[in-house]
Design goal:
The complex is a heterodimer of chains A (193) and B (177).
Chain A lengths: L4 H20 L5 H8 L5 H20 L14 H18 L3 H10 L2 H29 L9 H5 L3 H21 L5 H4 L8
Chain B lengths: L11 H19 L6 H15 L1 H6 L1 H5 L6 H20 L9 H7 L3 H22 L3 H10 L3 H22 L8
Classes of the chains: A mainly alpha (193), B mainly alpha (177).
């Protein structure tokens, strides 16, 4: 039931750093998440895009050394499509994603605390209905743990290059228009939390 | 030099790059991508197992899974503590219940906002478990591995969230974010 203690401490330390980053990134705020979906605040795309660039280049560079292994989640069509639809409706209503919802609790936000309780119940409903849901989802097929380079027979570096160029474009545009701190400057008023 | 933790926000590009480096660290040290929702699934399963031990014996979930308090569970605890430290150091703590955009559209009712958060959070988590991941597990960790499932999930959830946000708050809502 428990991982070894060193692994628990490692997880805790990694989580503390992750929590600090999410809070400083401003993504544990309702107005920043909804601002992204309403296209008035691009913080979420900037954070995620940069993370994917830096993370992806590093992981793929380390792959040949066998220091890391990929952990690609299976493409179970029914699960990914139905899950994405539920997730999208839920996240826009809640105003936080699972990680930033937990971070928002650390920030003290009461609505996030209620949402995290809802998340635990939602997970419980999934576990309880698992025997019915899983076969239903699987009937739409499972393409396995494939990557985009696998599917297209191309080098991962083409994909990573494209993502880096897209993020670079976003970075240059953002710095030209002078919105380097959109988490706070877009609304202008610090009282609006 | 001023303590960087005392600042309310960092550049989103700096934060993103640090999350990227943190994901190298997670792969290297724990052989695990950053993810949040498996811990919720395991917590719920453990609670169900404790409250109904006899159901666990025959239930397919418990025959195929081994819920545990592990690295990812502690990661979630850490996210809470890290955000608490960060917000407290910067004076960014708040006990806000109803965000301003929500108040503009749905009024000041605390219970309406809490109910929406509860059901929104529940539906979001249910979706994350159907798809096997969330904004962290699929959106960041999966996308950076160029996983086909993760890119498809990210496109679907982002599109659905945009449509939902405009349905809830409308174009007019953009001026009240």
């Amino acid at each position: 039931m428990f991982d070894p203690i060193w692994k628990l401490i490692l997880g805790l330390g990694t989580g503390i750093v992750f929590g600090i980053l999410l809070q400083k990134g401003g993504v544990a705020k309702f107005r920043v998440i909804l601002g992204q979906f309403l296209f008035t605040d691009w913080t979420v795309v900037k954070v995620m895009g940069t993370a994917i660039c830096v993370g992806g280049v590093g992981i793929y560079a380390m792959l040949p050394t066998e220091a890391v292994e990929l952990h690609v989640k299976p493409l179970i069509w029914g699960g990914v499509v139905a899950g994405g639809l539920c997730f999208g409706i839920g996240m826009a209503t809640f105003g936080y994603c699972p990680g930033t919802g937990v971070a928002a609790c650390g920030e003290g936000r009461r609505d996030a605390m209620m949402g995290v309780l809802g998340m635990l119940i939602g997970a419980g409903v999934y576990v309880a209905l698992y025997p019915t849901i899983k076969p239903w989802l699987r009937q739409f097929g499972d393409a396995g743990s494939v990557t985009l380079p696998d599917l297209t027979g191309t080098s991962p570096w083409w994909w990573l290059a494209a993502i880096v160029v897209a993020a670079g474009f976003l970075f240059i545009r953002s710095h030209r228009s002078g919105t380097t701190k959109p988490a706070t400057t877009k609304s202008g008023a610090p009282k609006r939390v | 030099m001023k303590n960087p933790l005392a600042r309310k926000s960092w550049s989103p590009f700096v934060v993103g790059a640090c999350i990227g480096v943190l994901s190298w660290f997670a792969f290297l040290t724990a052989d695990h991508p950053l993810g949040i929702t498996t811990a919720f699934e395991h917590s719920a399963a453990l609670l169900i197992g404790l409250s109904a031990p006899q159901a666990v014996a025959t239930h397919a979930y418990f025959q195929q899974h081994d819920p545990k308090i592990g690295w990812e569970w502690m990661l979630v605890v850490g996210v809470f503590i890290g955000a608490l430290i960060s917000a407290a150091t910067a004076g960014d703590r708040t006990s806000l219940v109803v965000p301003s955009l929500w108040k503009w559209r749905f009024g000041e009712s605390v219970w309406r906002r809490l109910a929406a958060a509860f059901f929104g959070g529940g539906l979001m988590m249910f979706g994350a478990r159907l798809a096997n991941g969330c904004t962290s597990g699929h959106g960041i960790s999966g996308s950076l591995q160029l996983a086909a499932s993760s890119w498809l999930f990210s496109v679907i959830f982002f599109g659905t969230s945009i449509a939902t946000a405009f349905a809830l708050f409308g174009r007019e809502g953009r001026r009240h974010v």
